[in-house]
Here is the input.
Amino acid sequence: MSSDADELEVSVWRGDNASGRFEDFRVPAQENQTILDVVSWIQQHRDPTLSYRYACRVGMCGSCAMMVNGVPRWTCRTHVKVALKDNRISIGPLRNLPVIKDLATDMDPFFDKWVAAEGMHHPSRTRDDAIEQINPEDASRQEANKGIECINCSVCYAACDTVAGNDDYLGPAALQRAWTLYNDAKDAGKLNILEAVSGKGGCHNCHSQGGCSHYCPNDLNPMAAIAGLKRASALSFFKGRK
Amino acid sequence: MLTVRLYMLQRITALLMAPLVLGHLAVMIYAVQGGLSAAEILGRTQGSVAWFLFYGCFVVAVSVHAAIGLRVVVHELMGLKGTLLELFTWATAAGLFLLGGRAVMAVTLS
Here is the structure.
């Protein structure tokens, strides 16, 4: 590690979906410095036209993910020392998404696929009914709990080689959301979910390469969630429902 | 590019092929070890319903399994989609079925 240098050599992607190139900057090195700090320093001190996206800065909002030295990371919680190679860092827009400008990607395809995977609540009761009591020890609740810390950062989507090769594939985040809802006792849309994840872009396209689970900044396991959907849809297939 | 139907077809044909591959390997080793000539092998297989069903099932399973697998490869690596992808899948299945079927007929029909 060569983070003792006074300055970092940083390459930042400049351009849009049609064309672009990496532009080099020298950024003062600090003892405690995140990738987002580096990007912000460039925008504030070298080029105010640099476009990027962030909000909370504490790993909650999921808006600042970028490619850092070729791998997807949440930049507000990634220390420079973790990513630095030979005192150099390359920072680019998230993979597998259209680039709006510089480091800002168009997240529409990512969230459209959440909707396509039925990643929304399907109510089982009306406001007039009593609230359903849920046993936190219940196996399906435990399974649902595994995916609820997803912050929609799209790191898993950018890490996925199947998404890269298959435009229709719903991707790890949307499928994990579908699996979470499938296991939620308060969700009445189990069959809708299975149907949504059984189409041509569904869970069966996953090759179980595990990039999603490897890079998830919250240590979630979308690959296991997708395996759960495969099992559930296979059982449903044998029961003749699909 | 895989629906649940194609996914299940590929898994079921894989399950079918596992014992068939083992059986085929066992037969090959037996034939070679025993020093059977081609004529002696054909003498046992021609007119045999059992060998027709064994290798017939094998050919059907391979045709379905390989066509679905190659469908995924050409879609993800070469971007083939839509009607062309459907045509490729069916052509692969039909080609393998014809080639394999011809061999099975030659070996098992008397």
Notes: Chain A has ten helices and seven strands.
